[in-house]
Design brief:
Radius of gyration of chain A: 15 Å
Oligomer: homodimer
Shape of chain A: elongated
Low-confidence stretches of chain A: none
Largest interface: A-B, 38 and 39 residues
Strand content of chain A: 5-15%
Distance between the termini of chain A: 31 Å
Strand order of the largest sheet of chain A: 1-3-2
Mean pLDDT of chain A: 90
Number of strands of chain A: 3
Largest sheet of chain A: 3 strands, antiparallel
Number of helices of chain A: 5
Structural class of chain A: alpha+beta
Chain lengths: 118, 118
DNA sequence: ATCAGACATCGATATCTGTCAATATCGATC
DNA sequence: GATCGATATTGACAGATATCGATGTCTGAT
């Protein structure tokens, strides 16, 4: 197997009960905060939303670049942040790179915050 | 009326459909990001969770201070951040200050992220 | 082989953030 | 009204972050 053995933050979220149910342990908080930090930027919020609402749930970087008034490296940086925490999957097809949203991850995070039982 | 006319971020969240449904507008992202930024810190996550899981949904600062290995001003700072975005309500009773979680706000935010219909 | 285009990485910089020590404020009590 | 205890505010500083221009690395086509 070629996959890394290190879990991305997103893979560790499903283990916690909702914020409002019981006090979050220190190590749990330390794993969840980076996920929220990745989301807590207006550009990244729009990027994620753009990707998610695309037809197949995935979008080409070429399209994303045009949607913002920012340089290409900046968009690339934001996509990397979202990818590193596991909120976006990355696929290269030919010259183009496609990012896709991890809906399960978003759902888990939403449940954690919103207090919905799982 | 003594209330400020300026809406806290939390009061503007309920107006957006889930992230995954349609692309987030620039101004919507700008209003939501500060909320997530407030949450995106391990200490604040634990603070919020601690307050939320208290009996009456509220907790005295005096109790919160003891739960962390941080200085009193630092805890005060974090509580202020959570209060300013509208995630925590603040009540002074005598010498003590109590913070309470805005569960509706958390629910809205969770739904926005998790993609649950409202 | 060379070239052009798509995307990532690097290096620099300005701004933001978490933390603390010191100090201020406010309410209760003596 | 002097004092004490509970929180908040201020000022300072180290570390993180968003952004850009320049450059690197692929990949497909000429």
């Amino acid at each position: 197997m070629s996959k890394s053995l290190v879990l991305t933050p997103v893979e560790t979220v499903a283990c916690c009960s909702p914020l409002t149910q019981e006090p979050l342990a220190e190590d749990q908080a330390a794993r969840i905060a980076p996920l929220l930090k990745a989301l807590a930027d207006p550009v990244r919020l729009r990027l994620l939303s753009l990707v998610a609402s695309h037809a197949d749930g995935e979008a080409c970087v070429c399209d994303l670049n045009d949607a913002f008034d920012l340089s290409q490296p900046t968009i690339s940086h934001h996509l990397k942040v979202l990818h590193e925490v596991g909120l976006l999957d990355r696929t290269k097809r030919g010259v183009w790179v496609y990012y896709a949203v991890r809906r399960d991850a978003l759902a888990d995070l939403g449940a954690l915050i919103g207090g919905v039982a799982r």
